[in-house]
Every structure is written in C-alpha cells, then in structure tokens.
C-alpha cells in the first residue's frame, strides 16, 4: 500500500499532535484509535519509521515495540513479549503499568526471567528509528541554545568548537538514518540499530557539552532524552554488543556482503 506525500504529511501532523498530548498507556490507546495496527499490517515500511521516529522527536513513549515484535513472530498484537536486553538479561515493556524501578524508572519496563527467542530484525529497525528521532531532538535543543546563548558579545554558535560538535552529531544521525533506510535483512537491521545507537550516544555527548550546565538540570528537556537513549540502546542488544555480534558473523562467513548498492 502506497501513501502520497500530502497524506503522509497529514498523518505525521496528526501523530505528532497526539504524541505531544499523551504518553504511555494513554498514547498506546490513542495510536490504536488512529489505526496504528492497520498501518503496521498494510504499510509497515512507512508506519514503523514514522511512528518510532516521532516517539524519539517528541519524547513520548508507548509500548508499540511489542506490536512490531509480535507481528514479526506471526502472533496477534496487543499483548507483551519478553525482550532481550544488554548483558544477557530480559525485560517486558508493560502496556498499562507505571514506570518500573528497572532501568532508572523512566519507562514501564520490568525485568523478567529469560524468555523464548523472538525475531529481532524488525524490532531492531524500529528501535533504530526511535534512537534517530531522539538524536534529532537533542540536536535541535543544542542548536537552538547555541544560537540563543551569547558569550563575549557573540552567539556561541559562531565558535568553531561548538560548530564541530553540532556538525559531528548531524553527520552521525544522517549516517544512521541512511543505514536504517537500507536495512532489509537480519544483518542489515543489526548494523542499523548499532549505528543508530552510536549516533544517539554521540548526540547525547556532544549536545550535553554544547548546552553546558543547563543540560544537567531537571528543568531542561535534554536530560530526559539522554536517559531515554541510554535505555533504548540496551534493548534488543546494545551498540557494543551488536558490533561484536556483527564482527563474529562476518568472521564466520569469511566475507562481508554488500549492504548498499550504489
């Protein structure tokens, strides 16, 4: 199913407005009313990047990763499924529960015993888009601060060190997004999630330096995005773990496939 540009823009505007006013179980219900599950069935290549990128950009959260993984496994959506986490642990993302004590109390994620193996490629790609969206949100905050903040009679955005940090962040995010757009198999999705995680961590590091002390305060939005990407990076394998896993796959195969046809 194809969607024309105008319809896609209207859909994005509606989703962004919904995410700006709701999060958690409330957003889960709102997305269901907007036809999220139908979109997941009929146009996953459009729905997954759009919804998960907007979750990152708006800072909202919803347990829709469950739906992506369940559908990839051939099961009905609407429930939950144990998900592997960094370090060999497992978690469940509750659909209606309050933020859990695990992983900093930011999301309704609970630690559980080891679950059954599930297909990970689609979930990793979805998380990659979420991480890219969060990276863009952090970059936007840092850029605006650099434009507004004046020192020595000049906006700090004119200082070369600040511009280098913002530029490096943008390059990392754009590269991760290109990798996500090209991901079409298990190895591609693994590498895309690793690239997105690395880009988000790069954004967190550089944008914190650009913002300085204000970025550490509870009143500023940056620390919420930093906390979120640290949690999301560990889901379905951290950047470090996935990089090692990709290396092991390539060594075992004795060659590297062409991931992008130029």
Q: Major beta sheet, specifics?
A: 3 strands, antiparallel
- Listing every helix as H and every strand as E from the N terminus to the C terminus, the arrangement reads HHHHHEEEHEEHHHH
Q: How large is the count of helical segments?
A: 10
Provide the low-confidence segments as ranges.
none
Structure description:
The chain is mainly α and about 260 residues long. The protein has a domain at about 120-255: Up-down Bundle (Butyryl-CoA Dehydrogenase, subunit A, domain 3), CATH 1.20.140. About 60% of the residues lie in helices and about 5% in strands. The chain contains ten helices and five strands, in the order αααααβββαββαααα. The protein has helices at about 5-20, 25-35, 35-40, 45-60, 65-70, 120-150, 160-180, 185-210, 220-235, 240-255; strands at about 85, 90-95, 110, 150, 155. The strands form two sheets. It has a three-stranded antiparallel beta sheet, with no helix packed on it. A hairpin with a 3-residue loop joins strand 1 (about 85) and strand 2 (about 90-95). Helix 6 packs antiparallel against helix 9 (about 220-235). The longest helix is centred in the middle third of the chain and has 28 residues, at about 120-150. The chain starts with a helix and ends in a 9-residue tail after the last helix. This is Acyl-CoA dehydrogenase. InterPro entries: AcylCo_DH-like_C, AcylCo_DH/oxidase_C.
């Amino acid at each position: 199913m194809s969607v024309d540009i105008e319809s896609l823009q209207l859909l994005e505007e509606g989703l962004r407005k919904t995410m700006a006013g709701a999060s958690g179980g409330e957003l889960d219900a709102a997305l269901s009313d907007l036809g999220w599950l139908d979109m997941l069935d009929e146009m996953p290549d459009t729905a997954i990047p759009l919804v998960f990128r907007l979750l990152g950009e708006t800072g909202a959260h919803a347990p829709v990763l469950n739906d992506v993984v369940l559908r990839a496994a051939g099961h009905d959506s609407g429930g939950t499924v144990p998900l592997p986490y960094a370090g060999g642990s497992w978690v469940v993302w509750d659909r209606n529960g309050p933020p859990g004590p695990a992983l900093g109390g930011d999301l309704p994620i609970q630690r559980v015993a080891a679950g059954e193996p599930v297909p990970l490629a689609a979930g990793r790609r979805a998380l990659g888009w979420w991480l890219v969206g969060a990276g863009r949100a952090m970059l936007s905050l840092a850029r605006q601060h650099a434009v507004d903040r004046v020192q020595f009679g000049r906006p700090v955005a004119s200082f070369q060190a600040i511009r280098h940090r913002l530029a490096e962040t943008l390059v990392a995010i754009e590269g991760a997004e290109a990798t996500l757009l090209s991901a079409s198999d298990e190895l591609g999705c693994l590498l895309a999630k690793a690239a997105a995680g690395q880009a988000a961590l790069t954004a967190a590091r550089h944008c914190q330096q650009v913002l300085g002390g204000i970025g550490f305060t509870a009143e500023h939005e940056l620390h919420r995005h930093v906390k979120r990407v640290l949690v999301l990076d560990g889901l379905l394998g951290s950047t470090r773990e996935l990089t090692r896993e990709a290396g092991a796959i390539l060594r075992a195969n004795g060659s590297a496939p062409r991931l992008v046809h130029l």
